[in-house]
Design a protein that fits this description.
The chain has 233 residues and is of the alpha/beta class. The chain has one domain: Vaccinia Virus protein VP39 (Rossmann fold), CATH 3.40.50.150. Helices cover 30% and strands 33% of the residues. The radius of gyration is 17 Å and the shape is globular. The protein starts with a strand and ends with a strand.
Length: 233
């Protein structure tokens, strides 16, 4: 498995995370902005939905959580287990679609850094199926997040904190409307930064896409990301 190693420091915690070019790689936009803002107390049960490299699950375990993680991709589960071992923490990683490996269980904390990229036809034609699944949020970028938000309530109790991001490389307006209608929401972090490199390979398509909100700063394209802590109404 081809991989690289990231050295990260989040909330005073140092982590070493092995990555795989076929899978989503932790970035400032989502993973670090979310990791900086999440709150985990010792002994809390935590679920990382769509764990990818396992980065956020491992961070939660380092903070004292009793942590589980899911991902639909077999390579993500293999990589997450390797990273947990490398960081000397125990996490129960299971393969499955979103919450499905833990039916009937409720958690104190749910972390869901769900893909919210819109991928152009040109980009998708050049990528492997695994990589498309790792990055794509669906046709408008918001479908996977909406599915997660709809399912999450079954796995929450009255005090559960659900941490998610809303990224403007998706139909963020639709996501925000759903969140306000269905959850008690608190904005806990905001990040504005450059889009991923693949946008430049089909920039005219992205400029014309009405589902996303990107803007130029000099010659670079930027997008915004909002981090929310959600609770049941």
């Amino acid at each position: 498995m081809s991989s690289n190693l990231l050295n990260l420091k989040i909330q005073g915690t140092s982590l070493k995370i092995k990555t795989n070019p076929k899978l989503f790689i932790p970035s400032l936009h989502g993973s670090k902005a979310l990791g900086t803002a999440i709150r985990i107390s010792k002994g809390e049960s935590v679920l990382d939905v769509g764990c990818g490299t396992g980065f956020l699950a491992i961070l939660a375990a380092k903070k004292g959580g009793i942590v589980s993680g899911t991902d639909i991709l077999p390579d993500a589960i293999i990589l997450s287990k390797e990273n947990a071992s490398m960081n000397n923490v125990r996490v129960d990683f299971r393969r499955g679609d979103l919450f499905s490996p833990f039916k009937g269980k409720k958690f104190d904390v749910i972390i869901a850094n769900i893909p919210q990229e819109v991928l152009s036809p040109k980009i998708k034609s050049k990528w492997t199926k695994e990589k498309v699944i790792s990055y794509s949020g669906g046709k408008t970028g918001s479908e996977m997040l909406m599915k997660t938000l709809a399912w999450a309530k079954r796995y929450m109790h009255r005090e559960t904190r659900l941490y998610i991001v809303v990224y403007t490389m998706s139909n963020s307006r639709k996501s925000l409307r759903y969140i306000i209608k269905n959850y008690s929401a608190r904005l806990i972090n905001f990040y504005s930064g450059p889009v991923k490199d693949f946008v430049y390979a089909d920039k005219e398509w992205y400029e014309k896409n009405k589902d996303i909100l990107i803007y130029k700063v000099g010659k670079k394209y930027f997008a915004d990301l909002f981090v929310f802590e959600l609770m049941l109404k």
